[in-house]
Amino acid sequence: FMLKIVTVPNDNLILSTKQVEKIDDKIKKIVYEMEKILVAQDDPPGVGLAANQVGLDLSIFIIKPALKSKIKVFVNPKIITRTDLFKDSPKRVSPYKKKKKVKLEGCLSIPRIWGPVKRSDRIFLHYQDLAGKKHLKWFTGFEATIIQHEIDHLNGIVFTQRALEQKRQLYREENEELVKIEY
């Protein structure tokens, strides 16, 4: 069976996914197909992919934060805690602190659209791996951002909704340039 990335507007992207009851060969085959799709993305390269982005309402996503990263699989993920390192640790505040550079998020299901989304710096996640083993683990930085983006997908939320909720500017990629989207 061939999976492919669905793009907005597609109902799979606005519906919450279902828990995976049993991690069997069918689920493993789906994850394998998702991995092939994610690795094949190169313009732009993808860093994460949720099952509903390939039309399946399963609570699964994979991440690949860098070109050389090994793909990590998350089944039935749930964020237990979020913290913002800058807000929660007074010792890290310096009068010379550089303004945090705003990173733009994109999405394989919303091609050529980019926008800033405020996400937590650190998340504590409960999930299962492909062997069915349960994990409780902290993620920080770019990995934490990707995981929050993918969990939003599993909850039927796309990053553009988050950006608009946060009253942020969205951009469209046109001829290698980012152009403000008027709304």
Strand order of the largest sheet: 1-2-3-6-7
Sheet of most strands: 5 strands, antiparallel
Average pLDDT, rounded to a whole number, is 92
Count up the helices: 4
Helix proportion of residues, in percent? 10-25%
Low-confidence blocks of residues: 88-95
Q: Globular, elongated, flat, extended or rod-shaped: what is the shape? A: globular
Amino- and carboxy-terminal Cα gap? 40 Å
Task: Output the helix-strand order.
Answer: HEEEHEEEEHHEE
% residues in beta strands: 25-35%
Number of strands: 9
- How would you classify the helix and strand content by structural class? alpha+beta
Give Rg in angstroms.
17 Å
Verbal overview:
The chain is α+β, with helices and mostly antiparallel strands and 183 residues long. The chain is 22% helix and 28% strand. The protein has four helices and nine strands. It has a five-stranded antiparallel beta sheet. The longest helix has 16 residues. The radius of gyration is 17 Å and the shape is globular. About 4% of the residues have low confidence.
